[in-house]
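Incident log, support desk, overnight shift.

02:14 A customer reports that sequence design results differ from what the structure should imply. Their input is reproduced verbatim below. On-call engineer (initials T.W.) acknowledged and began investigating.
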């Protein structure tokens, strides 16, 4: 990572060529692409999730245009109706080739930037925000970040302690290793589709340029907090999703030996320590599937059910019919956790249990 500098022209050309090749292969057998298909359209996981990020960024702009000065969009009934409308749309993504291509090109460019020049990538992302709470803005995007995850986590922590985000970025970069193994693995995934040659020159760590100051970067206007409310319903309902980790040498039977009651006790203890606002946030969900946002659904289907949408739907219906949190966890362990060899300590499983816990409280 240190010493790598992208040739911008070569990067743009590669992104266009790569996107065109991927789209040509996919649309030779399909008329359109769904949300579920997006998360596996390329071999590079980061590209796929950045397609979703670009899609939701574009969607935010569409929602802003949708709002009218003639109606009260702060009204609770209107707010709930719009939320239901957006949730329905999020489950029915359908994109044709000509509309996917620009999303895919942007995703490839962002992935290459994050891979080789993370300081530049984060400097651009954070400079877009008009909010003074940069850590909150970055945290909202955590579900889309799959590369250099330790760097992201360190940067997020530093942003909470430092007022200057450029200093936080440089501190995180200095503390992070070169990430060479991850870079090589990702390069190979790109190479399997199209030869990758986008590096302009090699520099020493001392020659690595500092991120440009805020006033030299392009300012991008975002919607106000009120105008972003509906986007936040999708992106910020729960804590950020971190990259999955490999399970230890424990076999699957050892993972599931724990008493189901322990899970319930764990959540009970966490609930007791929450503030009033947090307790209100975790009120009982009347319908489980309708309260799982699109990003969570993608994560559950892809990471826990190995892309098996039918098993996911069946599991959620069965959980819905359970009469307690304990019985729902036991059902998942017996019918799905063993089948798909879940790591019960993974962030994906914890996120699913958190949603289910709210269903019964």
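02:41 Re-run completed on a clean worker. Output:
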């Amino acid at each position: 990572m240190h010493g790598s500098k992208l040739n911008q022209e070569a990067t743009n050309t590669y992104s266009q060529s790569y996107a065109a090749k991927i789209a040509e292969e996919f649309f030779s057998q399909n008329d359109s692409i769904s949300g579920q298909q997006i998360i596996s359209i390329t071999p590079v996981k980061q590209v796929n999730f950045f397609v979703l990020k670009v899609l939701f960024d574009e969607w935010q702009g569409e929602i802003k245009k949708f709002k009218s000065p003639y109606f009260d969009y702060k009204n609770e009934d209107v707010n709930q109706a719009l939320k239901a409308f957006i949730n329905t749309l999020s489950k029915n993504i359908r994109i044709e080739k000509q509309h996917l291509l620009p999303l895919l090109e942007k995703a490839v460019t962002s992935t290459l930037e994050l891979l080789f020049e993370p300081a530049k990538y984060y400097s651009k992302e954070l400079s877009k925000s008009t909010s003074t709470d940069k850590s909150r803005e970055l945290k909202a995007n955590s579900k889309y970040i799959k590369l250099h995850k330790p760097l992201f986590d360190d940067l997020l922590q530093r942003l909470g302690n430092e007022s200057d985000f450029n200093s936080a970025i440089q501190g995180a970069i200095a503390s992070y290793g070169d990430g060479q193994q991850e870079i090589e693995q990702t390069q190979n995934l790109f190479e399997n589709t199209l030869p990758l040659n986008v590096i302009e020159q090699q520099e020493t760590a001392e020659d690595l340029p500092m991120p440009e100051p805020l006033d030299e970067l392009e300012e991008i206007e975002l919607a106000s907090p009120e105008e972003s409310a509906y986007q936040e319903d999708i992106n910020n309902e729960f804590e950020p999703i971190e990259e999955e980790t490999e399970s230890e040498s424990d076999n699957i039977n050892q993972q599931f030996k724990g008493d189901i009651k322990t899970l319930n006790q764990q959540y009970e203890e966490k609930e007791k320590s929450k503030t009033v606002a947090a307790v209100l946030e975790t009120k009982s969900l009347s319908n489980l599937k309708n309260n799982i946002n699109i990003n969570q659904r993608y994560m559950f289907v892809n990471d826990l059910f190995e892309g098996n949408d039918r098993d996911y739907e069946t599991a959620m219906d069965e959980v819905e019919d359970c009469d307690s949190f304990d019985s729902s966890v036991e059902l998942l362990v017996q019918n799905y956790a063993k089948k798909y060899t879940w790591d019960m300590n993974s962030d994906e499983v914890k996120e699913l249990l958190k949603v289910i816990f709210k269903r019964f409280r």
